[in-house]
Design brief:
alpha+beta; four-stranded antiparallel β-sheet; single chain; 208 residues
Length: 208
């Protein structure tokens, strides 16, 4: 795609203001990168994206094209209007945090999606006393019949993308997940940059 994009650097987070009707094009530049995503209503930052209400409204434990990300007040915030890979995005696993990496054996500080969420918001003057659950774009978490979940590399290729339409004025927070211990970001266990475009109209360069 020829669009000039903003970059969410590997293992970092960024926030983006969106008006209702705008589109977020999130491109998995290298194909292997999970992107933790949150939304906060611009009118009230304590109205956040809610994965429990999202699962309830969509009657599905996965997030796929055509579904809406719901708020803690059960209002639609973002609708996924296109997904080039047609994959099932995870809604179950938590955003990684300091304690998770300690449990994985990290003795020194390790960046996390939780820290990225708060740092991205702090950069625009917003402080949150809690971390909402994240929508885990491109994350591949198979679920077996007995309820067991696995963590495997994304089933996406370089250049795959999703397009999400804002259903209200909001702040979108994205984290290029820093996970480099499990294969959730690919067999190489190497976090990568992702590209983001905030657009007033549906991008003509992609197909729905």
């Amino acid at each position: 795609m020829s669009l000039d994009a903003d970059i969410v650097p590997a293992s970092r987070g960024r926030s983006f203001k969106m008006k209702a009707g705008q589109f977020a094009l999130v491109t998995n530049t290298h194909g292997n990168q999970v992107v933790d995503a949150w939304a906060l209503a611009d009118s009230d930052h304590f109205e956040t994206s809610s994965l429990d209400h999202t699962r309830s409204m969509n009657s599905n434990i996965f997030f796929t094209e055509g579904m809406a990300l719901m708020s803690s007040r059960r209002r639609p915030m973002l609708t996924m209007v296109a997904d080039s890979a047609k994959v099932r995005h995870d809604t179950l696993l938590c955003p990684c945090n300091r304690e998770l990496y300690q449990q994985l054996g990290c003795e020194e500080y390790h960046r996390s999606c939780t820290d990225n969420f708060h740092e991205a918001l702090s950069g625009v003057g917003i402080e949150m006393p809690f971390t909402p659950a994240s929508l885990n774009l491109f994350m591949n978490v198979p679920v077996t019949a007995d309820g067991t979940v696995d963590r495997v590399p994304p089933d996406t290729a370089a250049g795959d993308y999703v397009v999400m339409r804002a259903e209200m004025d909001l702040i979108l927070v994205l984290s290029a997940c820093p996970q480099d211990i499990t294969p959730i970001n690919g067999a190489a266990r190497t976090p990568r940059d992702v590209a983001v475009n905030i657009l007033d109209t549906y991008p003509s360069e992609v197909s729905a």
